[in-house]
Amino acid sequence: MQAFRDRQAEFAKAGAQVLGVSVDPWPAAEAFRKELGCDFPLLGDWPLNRVGQAYGVYQPDRYVHRRVTFVLDKDHIVRAVIDDPRDMERHAVEALAAVQRLAAE
Amino acid sequence: MAVSVGERAPDFTLRDATGRGEVKLSDFAGRPVVLAFYALAFTGG
Question: HEC states along A3-62?
Answer without folding.
Answer: HHHCCHHHHHHCCCEEEEEECCCHHHHHHHHHHHCCCCCEEECCCCCHHHHHHCCEECCC
